[in-house]
Amino acid sequence: MCDTFVSMPGHSLSGNVIFGKNSDREPDEAQAILRVPALRQEARSVRCTFISIPQAAETFEVILSKPFQMWGAEMGVNEHGLAIGNEAVFTKMPLAKKNTGLTGMDMLRLALERCRTADQALGQIVQLLADFGQDACGGYRNQRFFYSNSFLIADPEEAWVLETAGPFWAAQKVRSGFRSISNALTIGEDFDLIHDKAIDYAKNKGGSKKGRPFRFSDAFSDWFYTRMGRGRIRQARTAGLGSACSGALNVHEALCMLSTHYPEGESFTPTRCNTASVCMHATGLTNPSNTTGSMVAEIRRKAPHTVWLTGTSFPCLSVWKPFFLGPGYAGTWEKDLPLPGAAPDESLWWSAENVHRKIARQYQKRKPLIGEDRSRLQGALLEEEGILIRNGGDPGACSRFSEKAFRDCEALLFNWRNRLENKKQNRGFGTI
User: How far apart are the C-alpha atoms of 80 and 394, rounded to whole Å?
Assistant: First the structure.
């Protein structure tokens, strides 16, 4: 389960595109932050998650948030300000379940590495779908989790929604305002582009009634899994929150949007969370996913792009760290960051997970222990980032700021862990 949105320039307070996504995965599926530099490729092929495909001669710099064990990524941004997020969608189209194709995450990363614009990325993903298909497991321990994919694709000027069902697809241009997607097909009869055989196939299979307008979502959606995933509920929630900020949506509002629960407020507890929550907490068979990583990116026309990443689970408990894209913005310190593995280690993701799981056990009592510190640091980071950009976004200054923000977050996690483990400070908050 996932949620992705875009605020177009006229809808955002800054006049920039603001792009956001929560990645909902299996609870122990650690998510890594990875920067890959622009490269002239010598190899003729690239090994994706399950298959190898021809490599491009040149690939662009990307910042990715990705499941630790996959080649592909859940979300990311490249040096040209191209941002993409993908969603699992449940359709009537069967998949052979032989892992002979690309995952949605593979297609996302390939498009980011190879394309400059949203229009190019749309074409790239459609071509990858035609050439290799999407018969590829999207699960971690659940090796039977196969699905089709939808994508939200944006650059500083335009955005597209691309939804697929097996080999078929439909695309809709986002012309203005706010647009969100979730784990359900949303494109009806209002598509701008469509697979040349999709309509005939649907009509032959009875998915489109004679005399009625063809609707891609009606023709291809699987009713049961779409309903169980509550993707339409979450999409309506993000659409309502985003639309309410017309002309005023900023990064802070985007962070808050991805941190919301259902129901919101003092009645919320992770142990009773369901798939209607945007910030997801796994509870079992009918709600098997945690939000394991989150991203909000501000994509600018003539200034560096800022990519805010949690690198940790549960945005409601996380501090978002700023990274910058553009020539000279990569910090050498990033190369030394330990990437997470399958078991608890010294990485940022697992260090935070130790704290987050303790808070989740008694969420309403323990979250106040970190709430003030978290809000103060996040507010300071947003303010300082704004000053840096208004002053020209010097690459060295931005890189130093990014490193300091990351180290401050690490120190805060250390303090939170000590606070939670100190029985005197936690008197009245229950046993840890």
Answer: 17
